[in-house]
Design goal:
Blueprint: H1 8-15, H2 19-32, H3 36-43, H4 51-67, H5 78-94, H6 97-148, H7 153-158, H8 164-191
Helix pairs in contact: 1-2, 4-5
């Protein structure tokens, strides 16, 4: 029914359900079928203005051409007050509450999707960390078992099978090495204004 242009309030009345329930199910259906909202908007029948409404519009245009402004609600003329009241009601009628709610829901859905993606990413990181801890534990046990089977530490080292802890320390030293060297060079240059090493001065005896 919604696809044929029927509003949720009318659907709720036909089905005997609450409007909020109908809107909830429509929201779920719209996520599964993104084109549902567009089909509903295209199927909504156009309202043909009445003769009275057309006359009011004609009067409003004529008033604007003469006065150069829109009618005021607190005008002295009753005709102007009538036009102002009619224009106010038309503006309120053009406010599509359902469309505004749909736009608000779309904004909320996009924000919820981004947060959901972030949570999934964090969960993936936690899972990988847990897998890494378990893999390192298994690696340690396998290394101990290899030594029990007669392999010496030197033999395993020649095969590139050092303990994981040793590899991590060596990698950490390599990563910190260039930075330490740069710091030392900076300290030596800072000791001399020209960046050159100053000769040692002998102390007279």
């Amino acid at each position: 029914m919604y696809r044929r242009g029927i509003e949720p309030s009318k659907i709720a009345g036909v089905c005997g359900a609450a409007v909020t329930t109908v809107r909830y199910h429509l929201q779920v259906a719209a996520k599964a079928d993104p084109g549902l909202r567009g089909e509903h908007a295209a199927a909504v029948p156009l309202k043909v203005p009445s003769e009275t409404a057309l006359q009011r519009m004609h009067d409003l245009v004529s008033f604007f051409r003469v006065e150069g402004r829109l009618p005021a609600a607190h005008a002295k003329s009753s005709t102007e007050q009538t036009l102002a009241s009619w224009l106010y009601r038309r503006r309120r009628a053009n406010l599509d509450i359902e469309q505004t709610r749909n736009q608000a829901r779309a904004l909320l859905d996009s924000r919820i999707e981004s947060v959901t993606a972030l949570v999934r990413s964090r969960q993936r990181i936690t899972e990988l960390r847990d897998q890494l801890v378990a893999a390192e534990r298994d690696d340690k046990r396998a290394y101990v078992q290899a030594t029990r089977d007669g392999w010496s530490a030197d033999e395993l080292k020649k095969l590139g099978l050092e303990p994981s802890a040793v590899k991590r320390r060596r990698t950490a030293k390599r990563s910190a090495g260039p930075e330490q060297g740069t710091d030392q060079g900076t300290n030596q240059e800072a000791a001399s204004p020209t960046g050159e090493q100053q000769p040692l001065q002998s102390t007279p005896r």
